[in-house]
Every structure is written in structure tokens, then in C-alpha cells.
Amino acid sequence: MAAFLLDTNFCIHFLRGREWARTALGRLEPLDVAVSAVTVGELYEGTHHARVPAAEARKVEAFLDPIEIIPLGRGEAIEWGRIEAQLRKQGTPIEAEDGMIAATAHLHGLTLVSGNIRHFERVRGLKTVNWETRPPKAP
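Request: output the structure for the sequence above.
Response:
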């Protein structure tokens, strides 16, 4: 069962070959991590901007193949609405995609892995980690 939800930011670093991202993910089993369906959409949206979209899509598919994809269902949508309302009341709204990703991590009790911790630290109760500065320990 997954313990970590990878934010799009982390996935992009991994796909671009950042050594710290590859090392961090290499310390875990594929079953330890998951991504939100929102991240899948963001990654594939990015493939359409690449010089060779089909080649970029193959890289994304190979990366995602062993990773659990958590759909955005009713529970995630309800949690996203709660988070969005909380942050708007505080005057600190979050981008829709980030809100949906945060809701998925929070609802499923996963630690969100992101280099954009500041985007997510406003969400009460959400566990976050930046593997660039705090990589997972080797087994």
C-alpha cells in the first residue's frame, strides 16, 4: 500500500533525469508511491508541448506504468471542496490542480512529495515532504 503521493512537480524532476529524484524514488518500491489522476493529466498535458510529443508520452507512460493512480472520485472531490473553502476563507486560495492533489493525499492518509511545499503547507493536516532536501532513507 502506498505511503507517498507524488506531486506533478516531483514527477517532472524525475522525468527530466534529476539525479536526486531518481535516487529518492529508487530507494522505494513501486507499491510505496502513488499519483493522483490529476497529476497524470498534468503530465500528459505537458507531453503535447514537447518537441516530440509521442516520445515524451512514452516516457511518461513508462514512468507511470508501475505506479498506482488514484482516481478523483466523490470522496476526493468532497475533500477538495472542504480544502478550497478553508483556504478561501483564510484569503489564501490554492490552484485547482494543487487542491485536488492535496485532497487526494489527505483523504488517503498519504504524505505528499513535492518541491512546492509552500503551495501545500496551508492545508491543515496534510503531511508533506520535499525529497530534494529530505530524501527517503535507503532500505
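The chain has a mean pLDDT of 96.
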